[in-house]
Specification:
Blueprint lengths: L1 H11 L5 E4 L7 H10 L3 E6 L7 H9 L5 E5 L5 H14 L5 E4 L21 H29 L2 E6 L26 H21 L4 E8 L8 H9 L9 H12 L10 E4 L7
Parallel strand pairs: 1-2, 1-4, 2-3, 4-5, 5-6, 6-7
Helix pairs in contact: 2-8, 4-5, 5-6
Length: about 280
């Protein structure tokens, strides 16, 4: 049993890894970062200039010094800025071996925003979602993938979504008293479906060079949703609940570590069975 434990620790250890996480100050950014740090990685965190530092991220900064966790302000839609960030990562922490493409735009259900009817949604709103969620992810993969290709190894994890594979159920939101009624942005699911296909594309090109590329697609993650929405959503999930942060850490570490050394080009859906029905 002791030997088995040592093997598992070795398989999932990230002691020699440098991880880059985009969207570091967003809802799930600190979840991925904490999991990576706890597994031994050093983390270079990226987010937009002006984005407030979250309480969760501040907590991580209090626990880990700058030799383990650094934050750089970067717009993933600008190649020159990304290249500067990559150089800074290599100069301060080392050559990246893990990339978590987490940055993305979503619109959570709420009754405080002005929405649109489906037929009236401005093109610009869809454009911004696609630019960040898909094109920005591709650009980031190009820039940080390059040193991984030179090194001959790396793991890129693209954060997808339940809605990469299924359409949002409008009945989840019909209790929200808005006019026009709340709907998820159509470009959100489209952008995440593109992420999954792009994952497969990059995986087939880069596998011969030792770089694995996979997608991790969470289902609904508990985080401030109203009680009626939660009840509707959980009724639709075979496991009867939404995901909590801890549910996402194991799948991430599996894809980031040597435990998944023969896994590339796949989408790992973490949805409590939602898409099984």
């Amino acid at each position: 049993m002791a030997a088995t434990g040592r093997l598992l620790n070795k398989l999932f250890s990230l002691e020699s890894d440098i991880a880059v996480v985009t969207g570091a100050l967003g809802r799930l950014g600190s979840v991925w970062i904490e999991a990576l740090l706890e597994a031994g990685a050093r983390v270079f965190a990226l987010d937009l200039p002006g984005t407030p530092v979250s309480e969760d991220f501040l907590g991580l900064q209090a626990r880990f010094d700058e030799t383990h966790l650094r934050l750089q302000r970067t717009d993933i839609r600008e190649r020159a800025v990304l290249e500067e960030a990559c150089e800074a990562c290599m100069a301060t922490l080392g050559v990246p071996s893990i990339l978590v493409n987490n940055a993305g735009i979503d619109r959570p259900p709420a009754s405080t925003e002005t929405g649109y009817r489906l037929e009236d949604i401005p093109l610009e709103e869809n454009r911004e979602i696609l630019e960040v969620n898909t094109l920005g992810l591709f650009l980031t993969s190009q820039v940080f993938g390059k040193p991984m290709l030179r090194a001959g190894h790396g793991s890129i994890i693209n954060i997808g979504s339940l809605y990469a594979g299924v359409s949002p159920d409008v009945r989840f939101y019909d209790h929200i008293q808005d006019d026009p009624p709340f709907i998820k942005p159509p470009a959100y699911g489209a952008s995440k479906a593109a992420v999954v296909n792009l994952t497969r594309y990059l995986a087939t090109h880069w596998a011969p060079h030792g770089v694995r590329v996979n997608a991790l697609s969470p289902g609904g993650v508990l985080g401030g949703q109203d009680e009626i929405f939660r009840a509707k959503f959980c009724h639709r999930v075979p496991m009867g609940r939404m995901a909590v942060n801890h549910d996402l850490c194991g799948p991430l570490l599996f894809l980031a570590s040597g435990a998944s050394s023969y896994v590339t080009g796949t989408e790992l859906v973490v949805d409590g069975g939602f898409t099984a029905w």
